[in-house]
Design brief:
Number of strands: 17
Number of helices: 21
Strand content: 5-15%
Number of domains: 3
Helix content: 40-55%
Shape: globular
Distance between the termini: 39 Å
Largest sheet: 5 strands, antiparallel
Strand order of the largest sheet: 9-8-12-16-15
Structural class: alpha+beta
């Protein structure tokens, strides 16, 4: 089978899978699509379409870094499709392109292991299997996972360091640093173990790839690493949260036997009976050993709390790099399908076996993944409450919604971003440790609740959810004089780059904004830089009596460093191309 024919079939098959929501102009609805990734993408796209770079999200967790969250993927080129076409179509096409990328990349990689027919079968199996498509609604995992076959193919092929670095950088920019780091680590191992050049040249090439890829992705990576410092990920995530969605060994049988599982992160584990049977024939092959090792590591890590030593290790790392151990299940499925590719070449020599295996794989797997592709019209008014709830004061939830509960009523995830309501909590993967403590204190203390500007409390009841108004909540911004008297500013505006306040101060005092303080914030009063202060975890500044214009601006140093490094990485690529062209022209001239 030719490479072109394989790519065309993979693209057509992926298009058929997403045809229904595309034709109807719908978005996918399973699980985290509706209340997490759709509002996250929509909020980000609206800001960028209005030529505003959203460095900060003022609407969740009393403010949080936004571009530093890699899931926003602002500098990831495929994300730019959201600028060009309507949101619903862009949302589905964005996922479609990554499924195609995964299939085509898998075909290239598996072609290094076996015949083109076996590689094609493996690409189809990996593209359609439950562990892969279960990541559609946790799409930063899918978008990064889609680059892993390409990164490994670069390591095994004669791909230059620049393009290898670009592939690794794209995996980091796609939004899931954990999978991207695994890909980079395996790339380094393959390059070191299979390089045909000398050790010194191999080491220099690897350093070149590492530095170039880091620089290219620095515009996202450096702010992300800066955000990790002082966050809950620095050892403050509770063990039960780290190990939630661990997977018992018995659930691995669901890769070959369809049925319910005991974990939630990867809801459909089935990879198909054809790949499962073919993998058996590859167990004794010499080139299967690395894939067997990857599968074994995936099984052990995914077990989490079900293997106490592994659970203890994951829960007590200095930095919690892995929450939800079942996250690694797609890597185990990847390994099994790679074994199936090797196994097919041992038994599938007759042409009819190839076509039968393709047909059986599609017919067998597609019915099981169908629930993951359900769609519905895109709706930015999903929250059923009047816009006053959360518009001028924050919302807090008491208790946890049960699985299957209406998450829109609970204002779950990032639903608050659709209509720009203020939510005291966040769905972000990283939370400031100091803010986490303050939030927990607000759950216990009415005074702390008031000072956090929480004006609405959602509480789970027997009848559903009740909305309680807290009349004692402090305003989102307020002036307090020397006697403790509070007054409101004349005007208040939040943006994704700053806060703008007009204030008529009745006397000397302090102006407080109930937004998190964070490195990168500066304040000016009447266009003159002022000394910023803190009121607990919030931002504050001293003001004198009279009318003032107070402006807080957010421009973190980590972002500036990341921009500079990314420019250097791009310059490295351009200079490489320049020197290659100059060398080619020189050779052509000498031959003439």
């Amino acid at each position: 089978m030719s490479r072109r024919a394989a790519f065309v079939f993979i693209a057509l098959l992926a298009l058929a899978m997403f045809a229904r929501p595309l034709v109807r102009g719908e978005v996918l609805t399973f699980r985290d699509h509706a209340d997490y990734f759709q509002p996250l993408r929509y909020f980000t796209a609206v800001e960028l379409r209005n030529f505003r770079l959203p460095l900060w999200n003022p609407y969740s967790a009393s403010g949080e870094p936004w571009l530093a969250n890699p899931q926003t993927a602002v500098f990831y080129p495929p994300f730019w499709i959201f600028y060009l076409i309507p949101f619903a179509q862009a949302y589905v096409i964005f996922l479609l392109l990554h499924v195609i990328l995964l299939g085509c990349g898998a075909f290239l990689l598996f072609s290094r292991l076996a015949s083109p027919r076996a590689a094609f079968l493996g690409a189809i199996a990996l593209m359609l299997c439950g562990p892969t498509l279960s990541m559609l609604d946790i799409q930063n995992n899918l978008t990064t996972f889609a680059w892993l076959p390409v990164v490994l193919w670069c390591a095994l092929s004669d791909v230059g360091p620049i393009w290898s670095a670009a592939a690794i950088a794209m995996s980091f920019l796609a939004g899931e640093p954990f999978f991207a780091a695994i890909g980079a680590f395996v790339f380094a191992g393959v390059q070191t173990g299979f390089s045909r050049s000398g050790r010194l040249k191999s080491a220099l090439t690897l350093i070149d790839v590492a530095l170039t890829s880091f620089c290219l992705a620095s515009i996202t990576l450096v702010p992300f690493l800066a955000m990790i410092v002082g966050s809950d990920r620095a050892g403050a995530v509770p063990s039960e949260e780290v190990l939630r969605d661990s997977m018992p060994l018995s659930d691995w049988l669901r890769l070959v036997i369809p049925g319910p599982t005991t974990q939630h992160f990867i809801p459909i584990l089935y990879i198909g009976i054809v790949p499962a049977l073919l993998a058996i024939f590859a167990v004794t092959a010499k080139k299967s050993r690395w894939w067997l090792l990857l599968f074994a590591i995936s099984v052990v890590v995914a077990s989490g709390r079900f293997l106490p030593p592994i659970g203890a290790l994951l829960a007590h790392l200095p930095v919690n790099i892995l929450r939800y151990p079942a996250r690694v299940v797609p890597l185990g499925a990847f390994a099994l399908i790679a074994l199936a590719v090797i196994g097919f070449d041992r038994v599938g020599r007759a042409p009819w076996m190839f076509y039968a295996a393709i047909a059986l794989t599609i017919v067998d797997v597609v019915p099981h993944i169908a629930p993951l592709l359900h769609g519905a019209p895109f709706n930015v008014h999903a929250v059923p409450y009047t816009p006053n709830v959360g518009r001028g004061e924050k919302v807090m939830r008491i208790g946890q919604p049960e699985r299957g509960f209406d998450r829109a009523i609970w204002i779950s995830g990032y639903l608050n971003l659709f209509e720009r309501r203020f939510d005291a909590w966040t769905a972000a993967p990283v939370v400031s440790e100091s803010y986490l403590r303050a939030y927990e204190n607000a759950l216990r203390s009415p005074e702390a609740l008031n000072k956090m500007s929480i004006g609405f409390v959602l509480e789970r009841t027997a009848r559903g959810v009740s909305v309680e108004r807290n009349a004692y909540a402090y305003p989102l911004a307020y002036f307090r004089d020397a006697n403790g008297k509070i007054s409101l500013p004349a005007s208040l505006a939040f943006t994704t780059r700053g806060v703008f306040i007009a204030l008529d101060a009745p006397g000397d005092g302090i102006l407080i904004v109930t937004q998190q303080d964070a490195p990168g914030w500066s304040v000016a009063i009447d266009h003159t830089p002022a000394i910023a202060e803190r009121e607990g975890i919030f931002r504050a500044v001293r003001v004198a009596r009279g009318h003032h214009e107070v402006i807080w601006r957010y421009h973190p140093r980590s972002f500036s460093i990341g921009v500079v490094l990314t420019i250097l990485g791009l310059a490295r690529m351009l200079l490489q191309n320049f020197f290659v062209k100059r060398e080619w022209h020189k050779k052509s001239f000498s031959i003439a």
